[in-house]
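Reminder: ligand-aware prediction takes two inputs, not one.
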Amino acid sequence: MSEGRATYVELFGGNETSPVENPYPVFRRLREESPVLPVLAMGHPAWLVTRFEDVRAVLRDDELFSNRCNARGISIVMGRTIVEMDGAEHLKHRNIVTPHLAPRALKGDFPKVAEGIAHELIDAFAARGRADLVAEFAFTFPLQVFTRLIDVPTEDHETVHNWGIDLVHVASDPERGLRAAAALADYLRPMVEKRKTERGDDLVSQLVHSEIDGERMSDEEVISFLRLLVLAGAETTYHLIGTTLFALLNHPEQLERVRADRTRIRDALDEGLRWESPVQLVMREATRDTQLAGVDIPAGEEAIVCVGSANRDEREFPDPDRFDIDRENKEHIAFGFGKHYCAGSRLAYLEGEIALNTLFDRLPGLRLQPDEKCGVVGVAFRGPDRLPVVFDTP
Ligand code: HEM
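Here is what comes back for the chain with protoporphyrin IX containing FE:
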């Protein structure tokens, strides 16, 4: 069954040391010629789904396309979380955790705390007149916000962040991912224990004490969920901030309009999410034999749903490779679709808005550093690897 199938990465000709720079011509061809393509995913036969309509159909039907395959993937480092659950179990657990991720439920005056962190990061390079906004800002900001939400002491921020990065590498280096997962669990366990008797106003306390139908999450469930959030902070919002800045800096006319009218930041973020979706792939497993776009998918095989390709589907978004904050259709699916729609989307938007607003306030004349190359890269997650900029200093 698996003979002749390419692996996902082979399709794009990339590997760990030469990251995929532009998967979009391949996606475009697949959408035209083979919108449901047989491939190999970690040695298993799977189906690559690239058209918007088909991607949405898979994500909409959670009975036919289950999340249980994530138990073999990302859950290896996270433990059992809502990402691998279906149906009533998923709903119950999701209802426990999602209210606590709403910005208004977060610790203290969340926007002020996040703004303070953004200023601290900018203080470190503002006088220099130049910076790498990925390494010195976007990479650190969301995780710093998150570590403060759960009251991690300042001296441990870097360690926790490094574990978050290691978790992401589980596919290419399972040992590294598993080591970080164990270290993070050991770090979080005493925090969870302490919050049982010393309830604070932080996210860990809320998770430890929240109840649905008289049931609480077990310690391991809280730890797994916190690990999922570390991963979400370490690899997604950072790319959203980096990509949106990258796109605006490469379109100075749009940058000027956003700077002048900050209500347009949300449009820029949405277009950044569509144009270079930070999470490119979502996995599902067919629970029975089915067909998608006329192609037979046997029960038990995986659908690799290409959110990044769907968001560039010309059937949905005219001239899809163009970054355009004025685009009418903003219904991208960068946060997924259906029952597993991203539980942290509002937090991600808010962090993105605070990050861009603060950078625009503090860095007049912000522009790309001439003669320095940078670009958006990656397969499963995408974002710019560096963003060398210059700006005016007083
Ligand atoms: C730009 C930033 C982000 C992007 C692009 C993103 C993308 C996604 C996507 C595509 C899914 C759906 C996965 C699926 O259908 O299987 C998802 C789920 C999820 N995201 Fe995000 N995410 C982002 C930020 C965050 C943040 C900041 C948090 C938490 C603090 C978060 C927490 C979650 C959780 C808990 C789920 C699982 C929801 C469920 O299975 O019901 N995400 N995210």
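The chain has one domain: 6-390. The pocket of protoporphyrin IX containing FE is lined by residues 67, 82-83, 94, 101, 228-229, 232-233, 236-237, 240, 278-279, 282, 307, 334-336, 340, 342-344, 347-348 (CB under 6 Å). We will return to this case in the review session.
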